[in-house]
Design goal:
233 residues, alpha/beta, Rossmann fold, eight-stranded mixed beta sheet, 7 helices, globular, binds S-adenosylmethionine
């Protein structure tokens, strides 16, 4: 457990402040959809995992496609027993390692440079913000398959099926999340790979202009957090 890991409840605002100190991807690549999760969304995700479902404190946590380590380090900050982050991008892993040192969360934290397919073992909890498949169709699918292979509780971000202006407004107003239904396709895919969808929460993601094709200075869109449990055989 990292030095700052605490078992007492951490306020969401303090978690957001901590996550804001974890540097984002310095030069994101379009084909890997390397946008960093916002601190607000990461805090909501970690809060649900930690305090609604008791899946972080004292647990072994895997962050698939960890980027610069925001989710992994957030889990360590909240008191995960061990954290492994894996990404195939050298700069992402270098930045994650620097973030780890900068935040003094190195104990029990491991960074792996490689493809998610190389990960073996068993983890209590898997966190993932995979590429959504905007650049490469179905890029999120291998992430779900790997998470269900090695994890018990899985928190996976996916694009919301349609643009819903009303939902965006509701989420902007409450800065939180709203429970929505699962996409029948993803639910079926998850069941086929041995998991059940426990809940889906819509959350607002705001990213700054990063790529040439982004026409606005910042972009708001809805992301669905899938809370998944591996079925016991
Ligand atoms: C949307 S970004 C999310 C980064 C980070 N988890 C976050 O939320 O800030 C997806 C990440 O997955 C990584 N990635 C994509 N395909 C991968 C693969 N097959 N194996 C490992 N990492 C992969 C990318 O390099 C990128 O850093």
């Amino acid at each position: 457990m990292g030095e700052h890991a605490q078992k007492r409840l951490i306020r969401k605002l303090d978690l957001e402040r901590f996550l804001a100190t974890v540097a984002s991807q310095p030069s994101p690549q379009v084909h890997l959809e390397q946008y960093t999760v916002s601190e607000q969304l990461a805090a909501n995700m970690l809060y649900i995992a930690s305090y609604a479902n008791n899946d972080i404190v004292g647990k072994s946590v895997l962050d698939l496609g960890c980027g610069t380590g925001r989710l992994a380090l957030g889990a360590s900050f909240l008191g995960a027993k061990s954290v492994v982050g894996v990404d195939l991008d050298t700069l992402a892993i270098k930045t994650a390692s620097e973030n780890s040192k900068k935040t003094d969360l190195t104990k029990g934290v491991q960074w792996i440079l490689g493809d998610i397919s190389t990960i073996v073992g068993r983890f209590d909890t898997v966190l993932e913000n995979p590429p959504f498949g905007v650049q490469t169709r179905e890029a999120d699918r291998p992430f779900l398959v790997k998470a269900l292979e090695v994890g018990v509780s899985i928190y996976s971000l996916h694009s919301h099926p349609q643009v819903d202006v009303r939902l965006i407004k509701q989420l902007k107003d409450n800065r939180g999340f709203l429970q929505v239904s699962a996409s029948p396709f993803l639910e079926g895919f998850i069941a086929k790979h041995g998991g059940s969808v426990i809940a889906v929460y819509a959350m607002l993601m705001t990213i700054p202009r990063m790529f040439e094709f982004h026409t606005k200075l910042k972009h708001d869109f809805v992301i669905d957090l899938y809370v998944i449990k591996k079925k016991t055989p």
